[in-house]
Input
Amino acid sequence: MADPRGFLKSGREVPQRRPVDVRIRDWREVYEEQEFSSLQKQAGRCMDCGIPFCHQGCPLGNLIPEWNDLIWRNQKVDAIERLHATNNFPEFTGRLCPAPCETACVLGINQDPVTIKQVELRTIEEAFNSGNVRPMQPDRMTGKTIAVIGSGPAGLAAAQQLTRAGHTVAVYERGEKIGGLLRYGIPEFKMEKSILDRRLNQMQREGTRFRPGVNVGVDISASEIRARYDAVVLAVGATQWRELPIPGRDLRGVYQAMEYLPWGNKEALGEKHEDPSMHAKGKKVIILGGGDTGADCLGTAIRQGAAEVTQIEIMPRPTQERPSSQPWPMYPMIYRVSSAHEEAGERLFSISTEAFLGDGEGNLRALKIVETQLIDGKFEKVPGTEREIEADMVLLAMGFTGPEQNALIKEFGVELDARGNVKRDDNFMTSEEGIFVAGDAGRGQSLIVWAIAEGRSAASYVDQYLMGQTQLPAPIAPSDRPLTV
Output
């Protein structure tokens, strides 16, 4: 293990966030750099448990005690090799994953858990800074060709694994740049896009081919794709957003979060904002949805200069302590404060929106809301609590229901399951021979760490399908589910 008495000598410490009044003036990431000696102490808190439940919390099966020990011993090269053995993109998960590994940490039973996420992030950043992240080109080419459709974390993970196995892989993305939601949905203050481009450069040098700006099913037909490639991986995500069909939904000023966030990212990168109406400057902004996407909208609106921002959640406010229904090592639904919540705005819980109210000229002016109670699993209105809240802009951040039922899905002819996701067998193959599915398109909306695990696993089965055998790891099965509610 690392330091045998580390968890007794050192408490949990995470990097400091930059002062609020400083960071809201730019789009840079919010965290300051932590001294490496301090990070080593944090890695030394790992107890190298006989049964490391952090493995249970991480679908990638990250070798957490091993690279904690190596960082504590200052063996950075060995540490990044162990980290990359299970995770293609630790710089993404180290910034964006909610760290279910930490809530499953054995130390967390009666103390603060190990800062696993931060050790992971710093390990990969040290490796990039020292030139220890190099292209891993295949020893030989198989002659097989694969199309990966979608360039989010699942698609990129599948593409990198299959490229390294010697296949010729092309990644298709309908957006103008590669990255999917990593590029267009994650704000710059959570992950600067130079981090994404850095990894894409490595993948290109390994041999992965990128085809941005190509909408499969529109710009190129499914039949052309099938004729050109030996296998296809659908990694199109679960981008069908949840709607709120209430009176006034068609008013100007009511937008989906994923209509709004891409424009915020363009602004952060100095690109032209082509829709000035979808900008928060000087506006009273209401965000419907209390999850990560809502917090992303919150931080973006603050940086755009919103006059007021309020985030509304229909669920009751979570407790500060782990609920009894979610015992260790499950991921608990507790009250969390993101960096955006520190910066400005009000959070309202147990509130339902009844209608969007207009000004008579088609513009949003307010919301009609009512307080709710959760009784026997159903939301009941609290009589006498109806009121209006002024609003110039509303952002719907209520999650996603599955993959879009568009031309791509229809042309490939793949079957869907009862939840609207692409149906697949135990080998990640769809109902159509040679077409596989990975990530949210097959499992439904989930975490980035699950998307990467899905991409790696699907790649293993694609390789086996094409070659009759494989050496690629498959960390999960299609039926696996996280220890969450």
Observations:
- The chain has three domains: 6-129, 145-239+401-467, 243-398.
- The two ends are 32 Å apart (CA to CA).
- The chain has a mean pLDDT of 95.
